[in-house]
Amino acid sequence: MPRSPFSYAIYRLIPDLQRGESLNVGVIVFCRPRDFLGVRTHLDEARLAALNPGCDPAPVRPQLAAIELVAAGAPEGGPIARLDTTARFHWLTAASSTIVQPSQVHTGMTDDPAAELDELFAALVASPG
């Protein structure tokens, strides 16, 4: 199969909306020609504490879990999770005013969208070292 176009966005945790500082907590990859939609999230609580010691990570965990459920199309993800992959991607990358926000959408070409998800997660979200 030839290379396929894909889109991705980064999920950022912005613990203090007034300050605007952020911590990357996830990445979403969508490849329409291969009907692929995948998300990986990770909350590095030590980095969060360094960025904003007063931010409680407990309410953030269910938000990240909900993103994963919707992307996977899991029944527990509610009505949005029942939409097709294209609609779920657009819903999951829509602008948000919560403390977990998607970045703008970026594009590329890939032979393997699952591998792209792994590579982007490692480069943009996973803790260094």
Can you tell me about this structure?
By secondary structure, the chain is α+β, with helices and mostly antiparallel strands. 31% of the residues lie in helices and 26% in strands. The chain has four helices and five strands; from the N terminus they run βββαααββα. It has helices at residues 45-51, 60-72, 85-92, 113-124; strands at 4-13, 23-31, 36-41, 100-102, 106-110. Strands 1, 2, 3, 4 and 5 form a five-stranded antiparallel β-sheet that branches. A hairpin with a 4-residue loop joins β2 (23-31) and β3. The protein is globular and about 50 Å long. The model has no long low-confidence stretch (mean pLDDT 95).
Nearest-integer average pLDDT: 95
What would you call the shape? globular
Order of helices and strands: EEEHHHEEH
- Quaternary structure of the protein: single chain
Structural class: alpha+beta
Beta-strand fraction estimate: 25-35%
Q: Mind describing the biggest β-sheet?
A: 5 strands, antiparallel
The helix fraction, in percent, is 25-40%
Q: Give the distance, in angstroms, between the N- and C-terminal Cα atoms.
A: 35 Å
What is the CA-based Rg, rounded? 15 Å
Runs in which pLDDT lies below 50 for 5 or more consecutive residues are none
Query: How many helical elements?
Result: 4
DSSP summary, beta strand count: 5
